[in-house]
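## retry 2 of 3
previous attempt timed out at serialization; input unchanged, resubmitting
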Amino acid sequence: MTTVKIEIDKIDAAITAATDLASAIDTQSSVAERSSPIALPSLSDSTLGKKSQWLRDHLEDLTTRRDLAVLLDTEGTGSASYTVTRDTLSSVKDMLGEELADAVGDIDYESDADEVERVSALLATWGQDGDVMASMFTELGADGTVGAMANISSLMGYGGSDDPDAYATLAERLRTGLSTASNEPGFPGEEFGRDIVRYSVAPMLTDEEQRAFAENFPTGMNGGNILTYLMQDTNYDDDFLLGAARTLDDFERMAKDGPMSADIWYGHNGHGPLDTGRGDSWYDDPMAAIMHNFGENPEAGLRFFTEDTADGWDRQAYYFNDRSWEADGYGGISHAVEGIGTNETNLRLNPSETTGLVSRFLDQVSNSPGFNPEDAKAASPHIANLLQFYMPAVETALTYPNGDGTGGSDSVTIPNLGTFEDYPVLFTDDLESLMQVAMSTGDGMQSIAEGTASYQQTLLNNIGAGLANDPDDPDLRTQLRGVLERTAALNGLAEYSVGQVEIDGAKDRDAQRQAFIDLVSDATGMVPLPGADVVGTAGSEIIDFAWGQAVDLGKDASGEAFTSEAQGATENANDRAAAGSNRIKISAYLALVESGVIPREEVPESFLENGRLITLGDIPPDSMSSYAQTAMSGVGSYATNDDIDGAYMRSFLDHYGSAED
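## retry succeeded, writing output
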């Protein structure tokens, strides 16, 4: 055994001196290297450089021992001793973690502000160190962790410090440390996640466990608040997360048929001083917090929703259809499915399970009573991102109306786009509900605008490329009219939806419609057109270009569109269809020009700016009609004005409805 005595002032001085010396070496070496006419590798890569790095490498040793001494010096003597089998950095880190656990567990009403600050500062220093945090939480245990949060919560709620924010900071640093520990190899993450839930949700404890916990920690009706707060860190290891999720799932299943359902228990216990961002009128929902975690950890989320359960309990049916999510506005469950359903690894390794899950979720959640534009705004950006990602499935449900079903995964073939294997099945009757929730926020509206525009332009690009290789093909001309009908359906549904909701920041619903139109125009211009050189190189294969062109209008594009001075939208559905037809004529014309179908020398000056072909977003709204007339002089060789207006307006009006409805 080795006994080590640390003089805190002396080791502090050593840390400062080593830091200053390493910095001085690096600074002077840099000056010398810049001034020297020849290379001086010894200053950076050899002798002197290694000495500087050696000093920095040993700062962790010094700092660990200093902080351990600070914790051990409970009497404030300025020194402390510890005994270890071997005085290595690893063993000292283990001791530091254990002493930190004791310090965290000792914080109560008798702790002064300096003590709280000291522990909090040490957690800030070591909260990202897996060795120290794993040691600390192993010593603290799941019961001690929940108990420490209960102590902090109690102190935050009833005072105990002149600075209540200090407790909030301490709680946040503890949560970060738990996330770090969960990712450390060898830490019992799954077991710890399970027990964190058990000690937060009192009905899951035995009477003996409840008595033992109450003897050591303050008990109160805020376990739901504590668990929700802890689960809002989204960097937990998958095993930890699944341990917590499966255990809370057991509680929800048990409560479903018991005397008190899970939401009623959360309603009683989901209030407390720990900041979870909940609205004043709702309780904390810890399962919703776990769902947000699945959105950021989608491979764990897919496992949770698709793994077998002991008694055949169908998690998808329960969480997508049976359970209510009004407490968090459906934000957590929508985030989970968005993350799971758009994750590259899930789609590569488990495509059918992933897209089938998306299909069942969108079908079932759309019929939930609380899933509406007023109560599910938190779901808006996540639903919008899902619809944007799977826009071909949205358009297919519009073009080929289908009744309701059980959902699932299937192949989808779209002319001029290709075949999508293992694609989610969407149902026509669900689209209005989904689109209105998606469009109920500016961010959601922006995502739908990006998806609508990029899908529309991709189809036009591909048909333009096909015509460039065979301009007299009658089938391609017919397909052009089909493209116009399909894109009109999307525009009709989207514009109708945005006119049916209320979006914060918009002056009125006309402003919302116009903002959406402006965003679609801008996004359309961001999709690269198929240049004639590309068409010539790739030949007819370009018509098989797949969906997925990334279009990003940028942060707060929707907010900027709301404040635009552009001409306001009309409420008249026929006028709106005519305006949409004008935009599609121009988009088609630009695609045909860029792909070489229409010769550049035939393009009028109004469509060029500094020799560059303009985009749809460059055209002022009050000039769309005149530009559309010019565009038809080129497009008319492939589709007549009546073809386009008839196809577009018929499809648009079918899905637009009436703005007064």
